[in-house]
Amino acid sequence: MAKSEAQGGPALVWLRDDLRLTDQPALAAAVASGAPILCIYVFDEESPGLRPLGGASRWWLHHSLKALGASLEAIGGRLDILLGRAGELVPSVARAAGASCVFWTRRYEAPAIEVDSRVKAELSAEGLRVESFNGQLLFEPWTIRTKMGEFYKVFTPFWKACLALPDPGAPTPAPRKLTAAQWPSTAPKRIALDALGLLPVKPDWAEGLCAAWSPGEAGAKARLSDFLDEGIASYASNRDRPDLPATSRLSAHLRFGEITARQALAAARHAVHAGKAPALDVEKFVAEIGWREFSYHLLFHNPDLARKNFQPRFDSFPWRTPSDAELMAWQKGLTGYPIVDAGMRELWLTGTMHNRVRMIAASFLIKDLMADWRIGEEWFWDTLCDADPASNSASWQWVAGSGADAAPYFRVFNPILQGMKFDPDGAYVRTYVPELAALPDEWIHKPWEAPPLVLRAAQVSLPRDYPMPIVDHGKARDRALAAFAEVKAATA
After folding, report:
1. Which domains does the chain have, with CATH numbers?
2. Which terminus of the chain, N or C, has fewer Cβ atoms within 10 Å?
């Protein structure tokens, strides 16, 4: 025990992407210390290398912090918010409070690790007990190694190695009561949540997000419970169907740490043991949690995953710069390909997009328009509530063919066939592209091929009501494959 802890100073909990009370090892350590507790959140967009949040994520963060603050107050705690460089503010608060110990949940982006390491070294040198915990992943990225001692670059052997490790254990309960320490008068100034300016104002584009989501720990638990009660039984067979409620919709809750992968894993396995969920469906769901783990594994070992091609041969790929009109058509869901447009409109309206449609929309930008995958990654970073620093970049590189365990570049999603296969009745398209709602199923994914009488009966006039395709998919596919062939030949 450090000297300052023995003297009874408060415990400082530095919260980041772990905005919950349950299965919260940093908070549990503070409670176990027996000291009064300061819980702080530092909104830091100033430290070098830290990536500012996109608009949708900022909206989610506001509501998540509000929910966490209420939860802490309900058990006697308090959430104090600061604005500025965390590497300076956290030590300042610790010193002003005479803190005996400081706890936090680990982060895995290189700039964040650098900040955390500096704070830990600085405060430890001053005699404070400083500890970090794994409160985000099932397995720490550095613990999964190949027989050669290298990090994994293919998912299947990575996940097999994970499953061979000891079980991550049961989630821990939330504390029932906290004792909040007084805010020291000499500490940096706290800021009101509203003063962070995280919510959109002019214009307020978040109405659809408010209707679709309940950010916060309670919302996360409810979402997991509903999924295990209603959606898990068909997960393996229907998870690729955007027209069906067959996915967990937990990604944003996981991204902000309102619920942990360990909680999701434990609850899913309990559902199997209780006879409430088929083992096959739970196994597939758990594997999707594994993909999240794999993405963080890649990010930890490749800090530039959002900026650099994982496979260097793609550095010479002849990306074309899409015109402003093409890019805007993709962003606004006006490409003329209904499944792509439905996905992009779902994204703008709700801050999320069905995973299968994310792949289709990403493939269209990368392969049909031959735009650099980083353009799409940036757009998703700004518009996704679940814009995750690991999953977003790893997934875009997967579709581009430039990433680890990537879909080969020559795998080009046909937006017509993908729509017909995964939205066979057109329900998803009709939801988000209502101008096509009256078209028969046969033509809903290719309205430009519908006979004039069918279009007239559905009161659809092309391109007045809905655009013609901005690119011919067949020709675009040939162009993309020819470009890849050139790169392949040059790097062979």
Report:
1. 3-135 (3.40.50.620), 137-171+202-301 (1.25.40.80), 312-487 (1.10.579.10)
2. C
